[in-house]
Amino acid sequence: MDLQRRITSLRGEFLLFALTPPRLSTAPEKAQEIADITFERLEPLDVDGLILYDIDDEADRNPEERPFPFLPTMDPANYLDRHLETWRTPVVVYRATAKYTEEELRGWIESQDTATRMAVFVGASSREKPVATTLRRAQQLRAEVGPDLLLGAVAIPERHTRKADEHLGLVAKQKAGCSYFVTQVVYDVNAAKNLASDYAYECNDRGLDPIPLVFTFSVCGSMKTLQFLRWLGVDVPRWIENDLRHADDTLDTSLEHAEATALELMSFCRRLGIPFGINVESVSIRRVEIEASVRLAERLRGKLAR
Amino acid sequence: MDLQRRITSLRGEFLLFALTPPRLSTAPEKAQEIADITFERLEPLDVDGLILYDIDDEADRNPEERPFPFLPTMDPANYLDRHLETWRTPVVVYRATAKYTEEELRGWIESQDTATRMAVFVGASSREKPVATTLRRAQQLRAEVGPDLLLGAVAIPERHTRKADEHLGLVAKQKAGCSYFVTQVVYDVNAAKNLASDYAYECNDRGLDPIPLVFTFSVCGSMKTLQFLRWLGVDVPRWIENDLRHADDTLDTSLEHAEATALELMSFCRRLGIPFGINVESVSIRRVEIEASVRLAERLRGKLAR
């Protein structure tokens, strides 16, 4: 069953792998080289789909110094068209809607082959940011000009921890036409369970079917990567930080943790009847961390009822 | 191996059952009847020890209305002497030190048979409370007049969630002569792991051996009991509350949750080399909830390496 069917039939149990496009300054030949390596790495994984992130400078969201410097990256839609066009599964392209005019977004939506392309729209990272198109408006545009393009939205368990209303946000996005959600990287399994549970019961109260929640996982190979995860807004529990800090092999230990967290969430969602997907990324660009993320995806693939 | 040896040799893996003494207004014959029923219920459990709580009116700690009215209870030391004197394992008697004068505490400590009696000293529940003897002073008294009486202290994972310094408090209590800790009821496994982990690594940094952490569990048979748990200061995660609220059988579901939480903490502590004990209580006085707590203790007993 293909990814779109797994989503629209509320079956879930699919595997995605997420990539960040190369830096904007990358020469075309180098970008193709990177894409080729990615092909080689991911082909054997047999994922149901790829995700391409749309990276925005989120410095305004977080006053702390970014552990890794921000360097603008290629537009994911361009990277896909120029270097990954032969990839054989659906690709989910993120769009940070604030960056694009309505015209640009409309043009992009209209030109997508909905059999092989999907989208996730992301709102502005802070209220201070100049906004070319709001998330709400982008969702309307898609409903008008590209209702067949499967649209997703982000789900942030950490926001639910702080404000306890993220489940209501999910229901609103679902009503605006979204058919799946993708979380940011999950380290706090309790926060993810709280959000999934509140969302499922809210759907139940309103007579809605919950749509697939895609949980994202990433390994962490160093304290610097952990610091970066925190900067990105990921709650890393103290006990996991301690385990990683004192591990003989931080990366291996993190792989074990991520696998355990994913399996716990999978069985939790199955028990509650919430359709779910798994998404794996590497927040770090170090080769060993990318390779460990591929191993994580490999392990989780075997646990999905695909 | 008896309870004291399991504690002082840092072996852990022991099982306790905690009781609240009957109401102060209970007639002696009725109190004996209650004690007899308790004997009957707990004898087959083969626990390593009993705990008797010293209930204090904690209304000053929490401005919210108490879900169950506060009624003064018998002094645990009196209840023990008058009605449970033939119980054959060690008994841990709680002492809310603020309630007793130094003289009373000294007399009590001196008169204890240290082969069969242990103590946990608890400080005042708020800063506003009149304090006859501070926790610190009570700990000094015991060091002076009853160093062989094994002393414990309370450990509050929820405090660690708020202030992230409870592990330092545990080390200070350990230095003041405590040889074990007893938590309040645990529903938030993540909070308990954070505290256990921070405590273990703090010990490691200071060249100390961690002493046994006794984790307390209680079932919850109704939303009223859940409300009471929260009033007592227990963090009950949203997803567990949702599960309980929508369960066909709240009590059974809660029993499953408590067992899973306990098993997770047990394997966590074994992996980190933290000695631990298990304590089961019923925060409710309803018979079905007490009996379910006994079943919980029974299940957990089989998982301990006693």
Largest sheet of chain A: 8 strands, parallel, barrel
| Uncertain stretches of chain A | none
User: H/E order of the elements of chain A?
Assistant: HEHEHEHEHEHHEHEHHHEH
The dominant shape of chain A is: globular
Strand content of chain A: 5-15%
Helix content of chain A: 40-55%
| SSE class of chain A | alpha/beta
Cα end-to-end separation of chain A: 8 Å
- Biggest chain pair contact, residues each? A-B, 17 and 17 residues
Please, how many helices of chain A? 12
Oligomer: homodimer
**Using DSSP, what is the number of strands of chain A?**
8
Average pLDDT of chain A works out at: 95
The main sheet of chain A orders its strands as 1-2-3-4-5-6-7-8
Alpha-carbon Rg of chain A, integer: 18 Å
Q: What do you see in this structure?
A:
2 copies of one chain form a homodimer. Chain A is an alpha/beta fold and 306 residues long. Helix content of chain A is 45%, strand content 14%. The first copy, chain A, has 12 helices and 8 strands. In chain A, strands 1-2-3-4-5-6-7-8 form an 8-stranded parallel β-barrel, surrounded by 5 helices. In chain A, helix 7 (166-175) crosses helix 8. The longest helix of chain A is centred in the last third of the chain and has 23 residues, at 250-272. Chain A is globular. The N and C termini of chain A lie close together (8 Å). In chain A, 44% of the residues are buried. The A-B interface holds A 164, 188-190, 193-194, 196-198, 201, 237-239, 242-243, 246, 268 and B 164, 188-190, 193-194, 196-198, 201, 237-239, 242-243, 246, 268.
